Amino acid sequence: MTTSTALLLASILLFWFLVSFLTKSTGNQKFATDTLFLCLIVGFVIARMIFVLAMWEIYQKDWISAFDIRDGGLNHPLGWFTGSLLLIIRVQGDRKLAFVYVKSALITGMMIFPLFVLNTLINNQNAVKSMELVTAQGENLTLSLRTGKPLIINFWASWCPPCRREMPILQDAQQKYEDFEFIFVNQGEAPTKARQFLKGNSIELHNMYYDLAGRSASQLGAYGLPTTLFYNSEGKLINSHMGELSEATLHHYLQPLTDNSSKK
Predict the structure, then answer these.
(1) I need a surface site. Which of 1, 151, 205, 255 has the fewest CB within 10 A?
(2) Phi, psi of 189 (to 5 degrees)
(3) How many CB atoms lie within 10 A of CB 127?
């Protein structure tokens, strides 16, 4: 998932570069690149607004948190649709500029799409079925990712400020969603230090394990902290989130798993 995000950012940058390059000698470069910037901003704002409205029952408890975009809460499809629609409106009547955008999009697609396919194939081939962890008693443990119910794995460390801020939310979720399996994997810290942080902040978590060398996080593609992975009951990775979770974004990720679980 992290690689997919990197490829998406690479696509945007490549598209931007191509548009800038192809309009360099036309005298239309500034309008073309300014339009792209405007479309990205408007698309982002709409994506955030729609997400907040969809999760307003949660955000109204603390409406200021709706402006905290660190939780990554976005309605991506509507954001992209709005940005694309604005782009079409802005270039209406200018066939030459429209051709530049289409040409840039096609070149970007031909260059980046194979990488998306390759990334998907690699992820499927290297799908991890279990993790090697350490218990609080210092015992080695092999933990299967196929638990028979939705599984959420949170990688964290006590020195990580976003990890510390999201812990109360995850604690409440573990208590609320009894049909889910929550697993917390501390990264590279002594168990005594991690337990000291949890006790000092009155946080009680079940299924707490330790990844002293960071091996399981690397195997599962968790390259930053905090990272939360969402698996279905068959052990298939459905989604991931790198960065701080808010109550709203956590609910957003859990909802599809909740719906699938209730159908069984």
Answers:
(1) 255
(2) -120, 155
(3) 12
Q: Tokens 């798993």, residue?
A: 257
Contact present, 74 and 48 (Cβ < 8 Å): yes
**57/67 Cα distance (integer angstroms):** 15
Judged by DSSP in three states, 236 sits in coil
What b/e string do you get for 151-168 counting C-beta neighbours within 10 Å, with b at 16 or more?
Answer: bbbbbbbbebebbbebbe
pLDDT digits (tens, 9 = 90+) for 213-234: 778 887 787 778 899 999 988 8
Whole-number average pLDDT of the chain:
86
Q: What's the rounded Cα separation, in Å, for the pair 85 and 81?
A: 6
Burial (CB count within 10 angstroms: exposed 0-12, middle 13-18, buried 19+), residue 51: buried
Give the DSSP letter of residue 234.
Answer: T
Which backbone phi and psi does 65 adopt, to 5 degrees? -65, -15
Region label for 130, one of left (φ > 0), alpha (ψ between -120 and 50) or beta (otherwise): beta
Helix axes 95-125, 2-22, angle to 10 degrees: 160
| Residue 209 φ then ψ, to 5° | -130, 175
Task: Collect all residues with Cβ–Cβ distance below 8 Å to 70 and sequence separation of at least 6.
Answer: 162, 243, 244
Pure H helices in the chain: 2-22, 29-54, 56-59, 76-90, 95-125, 161-176, 191-200, 215-219, 247-262
